[in-house]
Design goal:
Helices cover about 10% and strands about 30% of the residues. By secondary structure, the chain is mainly β. The chain has a single domain (about 25-140), classed as Rieske Iron-sulfur Protein. The strands form two sheets. The chain has a six-stranded antiparallel β-sheet with strand order 1-9-8-4-3-2, with no helix packed on it. It has a three-stranded antiparallel β-sheet with strand order 5-6-7, with no helix packed on it. Strand 3 (about 65-70) and strand 4 form a beta hairpin. It is globular, with a radius of gyration of 19 Å.
Length: about 140
């Protein structure tokens, strides 16, 4: 009985640790409310029906939102440079295939649209929630 109690005492310590979490709390990007509905049947969003394609909407988020088809779902990220102060970098990131590039970064490290991360950078791209409803994507924060 004592061994069982000891096992239950250490259970949270063994299984409760999370060493692989990405910190999305980015002080460089303001938290603007996002509520975007994207109809993939419209011509400007039809490319999203195929893997590794993107679409950009500049009307929402801090500097706009890029939507990316991963092949198994969709990612949406803010186009504000994650590792630059918001008021010093006024241009949105540019999309190049499956990567996004910050025009204000000194490094040439692109951000991967599958993960939003860039090697050697402190912050990753700011993600948004994506829900699928028929042929619509609902993007929120």
């Amino acid at each position: 009985m004592r061994k069982i109690l000891l096992l239950f005492a250490f259970f949270p310590l063994i299984f409760g640790c999370d060493a692989g979490t990405i910190n999305y709390n980015n002080p460089n990007i303001p938290n603007y409310p996002v509520n975007l509905s994207v109809n993939m049947a419209l011509p400007q969003y039809q490319s999203l029906q195929f893997p590794s394609n993107t679409a950009v909407n500049y009307s929402q988020g801090a500097r706009g939102i890029v939507i990316f088809n991963t092949g198994s779902g969709y990612n949406a990220f803010d186009l504000a440079c994650p590792n630059q102060a918001f008021n010093t970098c006024n241009s949105p990131m540019t999309i190049d295939g499956i990567n996004a590039k910050c025009n204000c970064d000194d490094t040439e490290s692109p951000y991967n649209l599958f993960t939003g991360q860039s090697g050697g950078q402190q912050y990753s791209m700011k993600p948004y929630r994506v829900q699928i409803s028929g042929s619509n994507l609902i993007i929120t924060n």
